[in-house]
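Box 4.2: Ligand-aware structure prediction
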Amino acid sequence: AKRAGRGQYRFFDQSLNSNSDIEEFHLEQAFADALRERQFVLHYQPQVCLDSMEIVGYETLVRWQHPDYGLLFPDRFIPMAERSGFVVPLGMEVIRLACEQLVEWQQQGLKAHPLAVNVSPIQLSEPGFCDRVRAEMERHGLAQDMLELEVTETAVLDEQAMENLNCLNDAGIRLSLDDFGTGYSGLAHLESVPVGKLKIDRSLISRICNSHDDSPVVSSTIILAKRMNLKVVAEGVETPEQLVHLKVAGCDIAQGYHLSRPIPAADVPHFHATFNRLQETG
Ligand code: C2E
Ligand code: MG
Ligand code: MG
Ligand code: MG
């Protein structure tokens, strides 16, 4: 990245929006360097079951530990990675990192919990994506149900995406629909996509201000999801009031700053033990 010099910086300058060939070139160079130098790391956000108040899994969130710019969040580089196609190798790197982490925690005797990994629609439209994910899990000796893939809805899922989704589902890899309620959400979608979980987007959860039902959209979504035998996850839970409301409304799992921010891998074992002990002692 350093080699790219001044030109490189422009990719991180929000005010510039040029797409010149030279800039594209620098960006691809920076991404390639980052991959080779293993600058991508995962942070982990706990998902908590509202019945037992126990951690039932973690969502992995990618960060770019950039030598010059520090820790970069996905909003800064995922859109560019999607435009350039780099999101495909990056996505496989993320899956590899998640598998490695699962193996490490298993070796440390940490109770096994599945990891949820975000997948871009571009990855999903790649021929052979399903096979590559399955191969990676097998290479690490992991049970297929230790991985969950979070897919976001797009206007249309092309044939290749549907093929990958069905293949992943048949293989026993869990699928969840991320950011529900934001974009193209439609009930028709839900019936054709083989997901087992629905994640209600933070923008809907943030409308819950008290523990009464002041967000009929959220409570209706939960009822709908239940009717379709889907588990429901609430994203972006920031207050105890939201947690209470969601529990009363029948939501299964919650995730958000009120429970924990995403944390580095090294902090997970301690956080996990402390959180569950807290719940035991009330
Ligand atoms: P997402 O999958 O919907 O992930 C949830 C985002 O909300 C994360 O942001 C998380 O840190 C943040 N969040 C969680 N709880 C709260 C809360 O209570 N309040 C607020 N304000 N925010 C909360 P992050 O890590 O910046 O990731 C942003 C998006 O980037 C993700 O949205 C996902 O779409 C994408 N992303 C992250 N990792 C990957 C990846 O490995 N591959 C791909 N393709 N996309 C990824
Ligand atoms: Mg997600
Ligand atoms: Mg989401
Ligand atoms: Mg999102």
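In the box above, the bound molecule is magnesium ion. Residues 87-107 form the longest helix (21 residues).
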